[in-house]
Amino acid sequence: MPLLGAALLAVAGRWLPRTARDALAGCCALAQVLCLVALWVRTGDGVSVSWLGGWRPVGGSSVGIVLAADRIGVLLALVAAVLVLAVVGYSWRYFEEPAGRKGGVYPALLLLFSAGMCGFALTGDLFDAFVFFELMGAVAYALTGFRIEDPRPLHGALAFGIVNSLAAYCSLLGIGLLYARTGELGLAQLGRALDGRPPDALVRCAFVLVLAGPLVKAAAAPFHFWLPDAHAVAPSPVCMLLSGVMVELGVYGAARIHRTVFAGPGGVPADAVRPVLLALGVVTALVGAVMCWQQRHLKRLLAFSTVGHIGLFLVSFALLTPAGVAGAAVYLAGHAGCKAALFGLCGVLLDRFGSVDEHGLFGRGRELPFTAALFALGGLALAGLPPFGTGLGKALAEDAAGEWAWWLPALYVLVSAVTGGAVLRACARVFGGRGRHPAEHPDEPETTGEGEEPEVRDPTRPLPLPVLAVPALLLAACLAIGLCPPLARQLAAAAARFTDRAGYLDAVLHEAAALPALVPPPAGWTAPGLLLGLLSTALACALAAAALRGPLPAPPGPAPAPRAPPPPLRPAGRLRHLAPGRPGRPARGDHRTGLNRRPRGTAGRGAEDRPRERGAGGAATYRMRTARPAGSGFGTRRADAPSVRGGEERQQAGVDRVRALQGEAVARAREDLGLRVRDQGGDPAQHPAGRSSALRAPIRARTGTVIPRSSSSPKGGAAGRAAGFQVRMPSISGASISGGAASAGLASRRARAGRRRRGASMPNRPATM
Amino acid sequence: MGVMAYLAAGWILLVGCYGLVTSRNLIHAVGCLAVCQSSTYVLLLAVGYRSGATAPVFADLPTDAPVVDPVVQALALTDVVVGATVTALLLALVIQLRKRHGTVDPQRLTGLRG
After folding, report:
1. Residue A556 covered by a domain
2. Which residues of B touch A173 (CB under 8 A)?
3. NADH:quinone oxidoreductase/Mrp antiporter transmembrane domain: which residues (chain A) (predicted)?
4. Do A144 and A285 share a domain, yes or no?
5. Angle between helices A389-402 and A485-499 (to 10 degrees)
6. Distance of CA A569 to CAs A316, A573, A631, A666, A703, Å?
7. Chain centroid, CA B78 distance in Å
8. In chain B, which residue's Cα lies nearest the Cα of A126?
9. Residue A526, helix vs strand vs coil
10. Do B20 and A166 touch (CB under 8 A)?
11. How many domains does chain B have?
């Protein structure tokens, strides 16, 4: 159904008007949800099996491809479908879509994504799982990089794509090894074939390889780094899907493959699997929680909290008990609702203010009380407040984990309290203006979340209704999961079925109609669960309050002068860029691009009177929004703009002058450099890249050669020196040495050409940076 | 064939991973990803190989002729399709990144930190 819709949309999208496209996408998503609900009812406590093309097994062996759904799988597919429906609704008026030939691409991609996720959740065949996994992945890369005008989404999508594809190929290698050993590809057939032989090293190797794919997709600890990069930059509606369900599907895939294929006597013993997965989960949870607390970019914050919760799901699953799976399932469903709602609300902020920076938005959200209330509710739900589904899931999982090790419930409480506390802290700062204004640390490399591209063209319009209604509905769904005991009981029964391996094999291979009844684990509110939920919520509130009232390191304002005197000035080539920083030169960017220099008084706060229009004025908007304490070296535009027509003697002269300016004067030079290069910009339409904080850092890295405090990123690796050094070091060569280039575009073209020339003519640059 | 094909597959994977880790150019990185993927082709085909067998097309063969395993060939074909899609998509992203950012060196993509 979604595939059909996607094809229709991709073909017909260029003629249909916007409303018709959205309505079509909505109808497809709704139909998918209804189909899955029907499947949920029909599956009952058993396993629904469907052999594609009618290639049914004969005597327990088959060459066909099977879809096999038990309720856990259907739950995942249902969550995915509901979220896709929600996202289609949310994007109804949210996105500015390219018209004409590319129209309809976005909803078509969404439907493809949903097809990939549902297929992955319902398949009973290992190779099909790989194909759906890659389908899901490829569409996710495309959606992440959907706004191709902005370089940051592209960067995030690339990291996401490379890491995940590599992991998927590892999975495929494992699948090849399993096929070599058993001659089967279906999950159930593989499981049965492995049962018939003693375990050996090849199977263990295949186990590791096969699980690599889903676990990397699930952002387990050593491979979690792609997730915040991708989630911070993807469009908000896409984040709802990525964080809400795609990452969780990784956990589900690992669980399904392990349970069905490797849990038998011929697979990998549970005693070996459990500690490994537990350790992975614990590390992931802790990393996620700690990093979440330190973020100020709201979407990154939420992304890291997803990492933390993924760790908790992994822990619950790693217990390998029905109770653990039941807890994980309820928790996962609740988390999907609440996290998607939070990302949706971040989209509202981005829509209103063009920023998702916790510090930059300080107190500016006061005008949005309803959003604030929803955000706070989302934070509380994330912390596991009892009536919510997350609270119930956490209680169940804690119960299950507590039987295995006493300290695991503490981990649950800690992680959910820290992530919930971080969200509440951000909420209080952004919407309430509580606490003191956080200090700026302009010298630390940090993703601030300022200068984000608003995802809409016209911020002056009234806030569209779906943008608030959808998060509210999602939170309500999260609440309903917690308040509806039959649902939790059904999920518990489903978890029992999920862990019943023999029943699954029977159902798939022998089409056993009636499976033996299983005893479901308890699923309901218990006193300890309630208490722990309340405890973690209280802890979250306390943490948030502590963060708001905590001592401030330094008042916001101009950055202090560099503490250390600059090191002896080294080669001339590296310092050329300081020459323009000399006082006394006119700020050439002003007349060339028509951009105004910002008064320094607005530093750090983002200007309240930010103009609302885009286009020519938009550049000023960004300039203001990225205004920084003067002299911080931030806010710089990319180094393309300057040209190199200065010539060596001018460079030498510049270096001599700078040499004379050591000590305090360097700070002044640096200050001017920061402003000058920023204003040198060039036409923002040509370099949309420049306004983002993405590109401040290159300049910073260069100034870092002179002022050690701001030297960023240890780059001097041997590999770096050997390869690509000249590419990396095209030093900006004096932002305003360039003479009277008529237009910034011309200047930047010259700069590129000059850089190439220079790269060729100066092979022996010093190799330290 | 024997064990050599499996060793070759492992070697290709490791070489690709090494290139990916040390890459200073995103196009090179995407190429390395394709190299990693080609190790799966080698492995899959090696799994299905039978010495002395021919292609599994029975149009002009007796039905009892030895043929190689057709399943892995189907898998390898699917794999090729998947790989082509992913590689094309990633390369398109790199091109767009080069246009917007002016570099293909991952070390200079400094937009995402902290």
Report:
1. no
2. 9, 13, 39-40, 43
3. 124-417
4. yes
5. 40
6. 57, 11, 20, 11, 12
7. 11
8. B75
9. coil
10. yes
11. 1
With beta carbons under 8 A apart, name residues in chain B contacting A694: 101, 109-112
Q: Tell me what percent of the residues of chain B surpass a pLDDT of 70.
A: 91
Query: Which of A10-14, A269-273, A376-380, A697-701 shows the lowest per-residue confidence on average (mean pLDDT)?
Result: A697-701
Higher-pLDDT residue of A106, B11:
B11
Q: A198-226 burial, b if ≥16 CB within 10 A, otherwise e? A: ebeeebeebbebbbbbbbbbbbbbebbbb
> What are the distances in angstroms from CA A371 to CA A468, A476, A626, B72?
7, 14, 25, 53
Residue that has been written with the tokens 């291979």 in this structure: A509
Closest chain A residue to the Cα of B103, Cα to Cα: A727
**What's the confidence (pLDDT) of residue B111?**
52
Instruction: Using CB atoms, pick whichever of A137, A165, A446 lies closest to residue B114.
Output: A446
Show Cβ contacts of residue A487 under 8 Å, excluding neighbours closer than 6 positions: A480, A481
Residue type, A430: V
Residue of A55, A132, A165, A184 to mutate for B, most B C-beta atoms under 10 A: A165
The span from the CA of A320 to the CA of A333, in Å, is: 19
**A101/A687: higher pLDDT:** A101
The domain total for chain A is 2
ipTM (interface pTM): 0.90
For A301-316, the three-class secondary structure string (H helix, E strand, C coil) is HHHHHHHHHHHHHHHH
Give A61's strand partners: A58
> Number of CB pairs < 8 Å for A and B?
160
Q: Residue A457: is it exposed, middle or buried by C-beta count within 10 angstroms (0-12/13-18/19+)? A: exposed
B96 touches chain A (CB under 8 A): yes
Same domain, A468 and A594: no
The residues, any chain, with a CB within 8 Å of residue A89's CB and separated by 6 or more, are A26, A466, A469, A470
Residue B75 lies in a domain: yes
Residue A700: inside a domain: yes
> What is the domain extent for residue A202?
125-514+526-549
- Provide the 10 A C-beta neighbour count for residue A12: 15
Q: What is the greatest pairwise CA distance in chain B?
A: 65
Are A578 and A471 in the same domain? no
Q: Which of A156, A695, A724 sits opposite B105 (nearest CB)?
A: A724
For the beta carbon of residue A714, count every other beta carbon within 10 angstroms. 8
A541 and A577 fall within a common domain: no
| Tokens 């794919």 belong to residue | A213
Same domain membership, residue A622 and residue A494: no
User: Contact A145/B86, CB-based, under 8 Å?
Assistant: no
Q: Are residues A531 and A579 in the same domain?
A: no
Q: Which of A134, A155, A169 sits opposite B97 (nearest CB)?
A: A155
Give the best residue of A55, A173, A182, A726 to mutate against chain B (max B CB count within 10 A): A173
| Contact assessment for residue A209 and residue A171, using Cβ atoms and an 8 Å cutoff | yes
Structure tokens at A238: 């896409």
Q: Which residues of B touch A185 (CB under 8 A)?
A: 71
Whether B96 sits inside 8 A of A715 (CB atoms) is no
Helices (H), A500-643: 501-509, 527-549, 572-575, 588-593, 616-625
Is residue A34 situated within a structural domain?
no
Do the chains contact at A155 and B25, CB–CB below 8 Å? no
The yes-or-no verdict on residue A560 having pLDDT over 60 is no
- pLDDT tens-digit readout, A589-646: 333 333 333 333 333 333 333 333 333 333 333 333 333 333 333 333 333 333 333 3
Tens of pLDDT, residues B25-45: 888 889 999 999 999 998 888
Joined tokens for residue A589: 């960017």
- Please write the tens of the pLDDT for every residue from A143-193: 887 776 777 777 788 888 888 889 999 999 988 888 888 877 878 878 888
pLDDT at B88 > cutoff 80: yes
